[in-house]
Specification:
This protein is of the alpha/beta class and 381 residues long. Helix content is 34%, strand content 18%. It has ten helices and twelve strands.
Length: 381
């Protein structure tokens, strides 16, 4: 017999326990690191889509240059924007972690460079004061902090010893405010050993060895990788390489987050859209089950455009927020293993086919007010 239950699903609809599924995007409307220029309305739409997907983590970004564009004068407007994003995420049951870095011109050791934000700060005490300010401002809300981004590539113009000094300063400041704060290494742009783009100026091979040699051990809680391989086997190899190096320094027990991976559909051809959806199934889905991996963040929720650079076309949503095939696939992957996407109508109501047992459980849970927000229809087998 088949039957159905009308239900309102949120990101936590299949259980309150944290999941390994995360998402990248630039809701902050800042000036650095790929902010997408979202309006307030678009933030609400995007986060609602994120909530319906079932993802429970969002990788936020708050660059120092956006927070404090003038020395000693934090931007009230920018910080209010961060508060707004955090509150909307909370209404959908999504936890934010925050990436720190990106120096303002006044604090950079190379204020004359167009890439001033990527150079180490001229004064570690100023960096410490900034991190302390952010940790205090978001105390009790955000407890996971990523320091920098791809320091083994173009996002860090100093050497890795300088990055370790930067990391140590941030770690010390964050732990002083709240010992429960957890510090992520800035995501390495490969496996931390052999750089994926060795010909790129600034690419640093053997990054993990260099970081440990400079004293990184004891100054981060979570290893962090970024990579965009075509197969799951390649990801397995990346993880094995990283843990092999970590083990040499006594850190084999550390957790690993993958805070960037994805698949670009430059040109939006139908075959590319199908390939992106297939990637979710073949690579992303098994990756979140890897025994060494704690969380995986898809890059990116929304396409920055439908054309242009490869970078602009990683989205699970088109630039107009319509769902691409990969979004539907991700939703199906995140939901209970027995769930199969049945259909989505023009009003945004999604039908899911599940086992009778799961329908029973969700029907009981739906009696609790305030948990479920996105309209859905559950159909039993």
């Amino acid at each position: 017999m088949r039957w159905s239950i009308p239900l309102f699903l949120a990101g936590a609809a299949f259980g309150a326990a944290p999941t390994p599924y995360g998402m990248d995007d630039g809701f902050d409307r800042g000036t650095a690191w790929g902010a997408n220029g979202y309006s307030d309305t678009e933030v609400r739409v995007a986060i609602a889509k994120l909530g319906v997907s079932g993802a429970q983590w969002y990788r936020g970004i708050a660059t120092w240059g956006d927070v404090e564009p003038a020395k000693g004068a934090p931007s009230k407007t920018y910080l209010a924007r961060q508060d707004f994003i955090y509150e909307i995420l909370q209404t959908h049951g999504i936890q934010e972690y925050m990436q720190l870095g990106g120096q303002p011109k006044w604090a950079s050791s190379r204020p004359d460079s167009a890439d001033f934000w990527a150079y180490p700060p001229v004064d570690q005490a100023q960096w410490s004061a900034h991190v302390t300010f952010m940790a205090n401002r978001f105390k009790g809300k955000i407890n996971y902090w990523e320091i920098g981004n791809e320091e083994d590539w173009i996002f860090w113009k100093g050497d890795l010893a300088q990055y370790v000094a930067y990391l140590k300063t941030a770690y010390t400041a964050l732990k002083a405010v709240d010992p429960a704060n957890q510090v992520l290494l800035g995501g390495l742009a490969s496996d931390g050993l052999t750089h994926w783009s060795p010909q790129t100026p600034g690419a640093k091979s053997k990054a993990i060895q260099q970081l440990y040699a400079a004293g990184a051990k004891g100054y981060f809680d979570i290893m962090n990788l970024h990579a965009y391989p075509a197969t799951y086997k390649e990801w397995e190899d990346h993880i094995a390489v990283a843990y092999g190096e970590m083990a040499k320094y006594g850190d084999a027990g550390k957790r690993l987050w993958i805070t960037e991976t994805g698949f670009s559909t430059l040109g939006d051809a139908a075959d590319k859209l199908k390939a992106q959806a297939a990637f979710v199934r073949a690579v992303y889905a098994p990756l979140v089950k890897h025994p060494k991996v704690d969380k995986v963040f898809w890059y990116n929720l929304r396409c920055k455009s439908g054309e242009g650079a490869n970078e602009d076309n990683f989205g699970l949503l088109a630039n107009d927020f319509s769902a691409r095939p990969a979004y539907d696939t991700l939703v199906a992957v995140i939901r209970d293993g027995s769930a199969r996407l049945q259909s989505r109508d023009a009003n945004g109501i999604t039908a899911w086919r599940l086992s009778r047992r799961v329908c029973d459980a969700l029907g009981r849970a739906s009696a609790r007010p305030g948990r479920y927000r996105a309209p859905a229809l559950l159909i039993s087998d």
